C-alpha cells in the first residue's frame, strides 16, 4: 500500500510516517511539503498511490481547498482524506462536499487514525462520530458559519441543559438527548489490520440501505466525490441515467444533497463497524 502525505510541517510528516509504518510495515509512505512536490510524486513512474493524506493549512500563500479541488480534478480515482488541525465545522462539510473521503483531526489517536484509514481504503467515508453529531445537530438549526468544534460543544450542551430545565419546570418527564458528552464517548470496535487491504468497488455495509446493485455502485462512486459525468463514464451509463440513480439514492437516504448523503453513509458505516 502506498500513502502520500501533503503537509508543510516536517515534524508532522515525520510523526505521521512513523504512525503509518507502525500500523503496517507494508505501508510505503511518500511525503511532500508543497503541492508542487505532491504533483511530482503523483506523476512519477512508480506504482500509483492508494491514498493521499492532505492538510488544509499549507501556509499563508496556499489554500488547502484549492489544492483539494485540483487533486480531485487531476486524480479523481485517488482517495483523499483530510488530516488537519482546523476547528471549523464548516471546513469539514466543505471538504466532504469537494470529494474528501475522510476527515481526521490532528489530535486523533492512533486507533482513530487506523479506523479512518480502514474506512477510506475500503471505499467508505470516515468522519469522527463527535463531528458527525455536531454537524447533524447544528445543520438542523441553520448555517454552520464559523462555528468551531469547541464552541459547538458548548452551544449544544447549553441548549440541552436549557431544554432539560424547561421540561423540569413544566413537570414533563425528561427525554434523553443526544448530548455532546455522549457523542464523544462511543468507541469504535478494533478493525482488522491494514495488511493486504485493497479498495473494493464498493464499501461493505451498504446493503442495509436497501439500494439496487446499480444504485449501490453509483453511491460508491459518489462517495469518492466523482461528478455525474465521471460516474457515467465509469459505469458506461448516460449522464441522465446517472442523475436518476443519484436522485433515487438521495431519496433512499432521506437527504437532499450529496454532502448529506456522504454524512449519512459515514454514520451508517461507523454504526455497522462498532456493532460488528
Helix and strand topology:
Layout: E1 2-6, H1 10-23, E2 28-32, H2 35-42, E3 51-54, H3 64-74, E4 80-84, H4 89-97, E5 102-105, H5 110-121, H6 129-139, H7 149-169, H8 180-184, H9 213-223, H10 228-235, H11 239-253, H12 258-275
Parallel strand pairs: 1-2, 1-3, 3-4, 4-5
Describe the structure in your own words.
This protein is of the alpha/beta class and 276 residues long. It has a single domain (2-132, 186-275), classed as 3-Layer(aba) Sandwich (Rossmann fold), CATH 3.40.50. 52% of the residues lie in helices and 8% in strands. It has 12 helices and 5 strands. It has a 5-stranded parallel sheet, with helices on both faces. Helix 4 (89-97) crosses helix 12 (258-275), helix 6 (129-139) packs across helix 7 (149-169) and helix 10 packs across helix 11. The longest helix has 21 residues, at 149-169.
Q: What keyword list fits this structure?
A:
globular; 276 residues; alpha/beta; 12 helices; five-stranded parallel β-sheet; Rossmann fold
- The structural class is alpha/beta
Order of helices and strands: EHEHEHEHEHHHHHHHH
Shape: globular
What is the end-to-end distance?
25 Å
**What is the CATH C-level name?**
Alpha Beta
Give the low-pLDDT segments.
Answer: 175-202
Compute the gyration radius: what is it?
A: 19 Å
Can you count the beta strands?
A: 5
CATH architecture: 3-Layer(aba) Sandwich
The description of the largest β-sheet is:
5 strands, parallel
Mean pLDDT: 74
Going across the major beta sheet, what is the strand order?
A: 2-1-3-4-5
Report the CATH topology name: Rossmann fold
Helix content: 40-55%
Number of DSSP helical runs: 12
